[in-house]
Amino acid sequence: MSARPLHFNAFIWPNGYHESAWRVVDDDVRGVLGLPYYADIARTAERGLLDTIFLADNIAIPEYRVAHLPQTQFDPISVLSALAAVTSHIGLIGTGSTTYNKPWELARRFATLDHLSGGRAGWNIVTTVTSLAAANFGEAAHPDHADRYARAHEFVDVVTRAWDSWEDGALVGDRPDGVWADRAKLHAPRFHGEFYDVEGILPFPRSPQGWPVLVQAGQSSAGIGLAARFAELVFSGPPSLEAAVKFRTDLHARAAEAGRAPEQVLVLPALMITLGDTEAAAQEKAQRLEDLSSEEFRWQNVLYTAGLDPDAFDPDAPLPAELLDAPAASSRAAQLVEAARAEPTATLRELTSAMKSGAGQYHFVGTPEQLADHILTWQDAGAVDGFTIMGSTLPYELSTFVDHVVPLLQAKGRFRTEYTGSTLREHLDLPRPAGRG
Ligand SMILES: Cc1cc2nc3c(=O)[nH]c(=O)nc-3n(C[C@H](O)[C@H](O)[C@H](O)COP(=O)(O)O)c2cc1C
């Protein structure tokens, strides 16, 4: 049986995804603020024939983070536009919020990237978890989870209508008759929904892919519902093999219920990797990163990801009693409260020291051969179509992946040996949406 080809995204993060990465790499700490850092990673990923590079977006950051982690959250589309100019094939996925953008404007920006890159754009659809974003955008309140997802459905719907507002053949370029584009081939959205009103056409013709590839990483039922309806590439996925098979099976079933072909929903979960020539060398590197982890960051981050303000807490005191009785703000908050109830005298520092960060569960540590085996085992079990590779340090782990893991997968006939197409849809073997007309 020949398996379907694997697909990989390279997740770009300053100095690497591990919180201690910036302390172990040799590069100038300010390098992550310049284009060469991103260009080097993009070219490395393209040398390895990976499907995409992927940029996250965080539109509000809590101030405590600046002490512990490099902060380089540029506008992803600006960075990807620059990277389009220094690469020729690799896909360019950027994150964009449905809660804090206007759909027509976002449709225009991603379609611009699709044009300028010759059909390599992808949009990672997020609803934005942090409530801090509201104040940055002049909003009185951050919409709740259900409301954010209700808006997201309508938002994506109207974005795709904007992308279809020109038929593919609308640009005729008829010089003798003086007709640049055929007005009869325009289809203004004239959309009036519950949340959005979008009237007019985009200010340029349909982009090479018709629609940039739609990407999503929801974990909740509502998040998976949005993915089932729209996403062509999904980043989320649980850490155990068994749970990951179930996740992909359920997602495919929900996509089928939404009238879509399940094989057109690719699942590439995030996987942090630390590689070494020997397993012991890899373990030693991973241990060094862990040893440098900041206890200060740990308790602040647990509070923040639980929806609480770290500045309002004393780390050397137990969790305030009123928090134990109030309804939990999130599943992370519930976890913290449960730990505090079990050990009422433990300080916040003690309670959180045992809590692993979410990414910890996804951390692969080993040799290139072991990683290649891991990837193939997971694909053969039906858990994944590939992975979103998060180097614990960058560019080191990515170049090791490209130079030592990719060739092993190629030798087994499981990964491409050249790009056979030019657009991201072609790399992923996804159909091009037909559009209007
Ligand atoms: C690999 C990965 C990358 C993500 N990138 C972003 C991001 O850049 N910006 C963001 O606001 N959320 C990001 N998220 C969060 C998701 O969009 C989503 O909000 C989160 O997984 C919670 O899902 P839920 O809202 O369905 O509970 C990411 C999640 C994953 C797994």
TrEMBL record:
CDD domains: Nitrilotriacetate_monoxgenase (cd01095). It is an enzyme of class 1 (oxidoreductase). FMN binds at residues 57, 95, 145, 149, 220. It holds the Pfam family Bac_luciferase. GO terms for molecular function: monooxygenase activity; oxidoreductase activity, acting on paired donors, with incorporation or reduction of molecular oxygen. Its EC number is 1.-.-.-. It comes from the Bacteria. Keywords: Flavoprotein, FMN, Monooxygenase, Oxidoreductase. The keyword Transport does not apply. InterPro entries: Diverse_substr_monoxygenases, Luciferase-like_dom, Luciferase-like_sf, NTA_MOA. Residues 34-383 form the Luciferase-like domain. NCBIfam families: FMN_nitrolo (TIGR03860). Belongs to the NtaA/SnaA/DszA monooxygenase family. This is LLM class flavin-dependent oxidoreductase. It comes from Amycolatopsis carbonis.
